[in-house]
Amino acid sequence: MQSARIDQYRRDITEAAAAIPGDGPIALMEICGTHTVAIRRTGLRSLLPQRVRLISGPGCPVCVTSQGTIDVLVDLAARDGVTVATFGDMVRVPGSTASLERRKAEGGSVAVCYSVLEALDLARRRRGETVVFAAVGFETTAPGTAVAIETAKAEGLGNFLILSGHKWIIPAMDALLAGGEVRIDGFLCPGHVSVIIGSRAYEPLAAAYRRPCVVAGFTAEQVLAGVAAILRQLAAGEARVENVYQEAVRPEGNPEALARIERVFEVVDVTWRGLGSIPASGMGLREAYAEFDAPPALGIPWPPAEPAAEQHGCRCGDVIRGLVEPHGCPLFGKTCTPAHPVGPCMVSREGSCQAEYKYGRK
Questions:
Q1: pLDDT at 308 over 80
Q2: Is residue 164 helix, strand or coil?
Q3: CA–CA separation, 235 and 186 (whole Å)
């Protein structure tokens, strides 16, 4: 953290912030759970001028999965002949009545997978069961799910289904700016997602709302380079897309991955925790692959009904959209800890609350 390059970025940040008119706060939002963890783990906030604020947005895919979706998965795990396959973080997210972890302890069938291909292999080995993969994630993980669906179709693997929770990130960014509830002066755009969609994808957003959008990687140097680039734009009165992660992100993204998403998924409206229903922000299976869509195959009402409120006073939804910091929730660090989480922001390794609990309080 003491390299000459980091010191230079700090000087650049200080100079650019001083050149921005006014003396009010400058709020920059990162839209990536990996960024959130990196920022808190390395203490980068302490290196910034006082008026520059880094706030976390809806970058954790587990966290933004709606409560209704969690409830459906919990109910499925209790069905005879059905196994819910999911990533590890999803298992501990509390539903309205139970978590997948609790349902498994009660005798339900839940399998933790590290990739969708493991879930596919599980379906091959358990032909007499229906394996439902909880397909959560942004554009980064959707191509893998698309490959699994195409493989299942080619093999005639009819006992493999998905419950699609895949989402497009830019509609959420648009919804945050359009809502105006939280001040956002610029975006630190997600590195992993940008590898797939490309830096060019943010251009309409930057133009429509006059907000700088800078793609950055995950090292301390990359994050500071991204912050410096945003502040330089604000000081110059500019609002454009800039990419400081060029070794991984191209303007056009990954055409093959995008083509796979396009073949298997269509754009649908979907509900986000904390943000509500966002038009054209989800990925639903196309008609050609409808046989692998869990809700119609298993007679599940879809979209699911959503609870009226978060669990037990949890403010995870407010944290997700940057309205409050984790310590602004009355449960944080008290009744809600990583060992006993109340909401998904404390469950997920990419959640703002867990990152703040592990690193920020130090």
A1: no
A2: strand
A3: 12
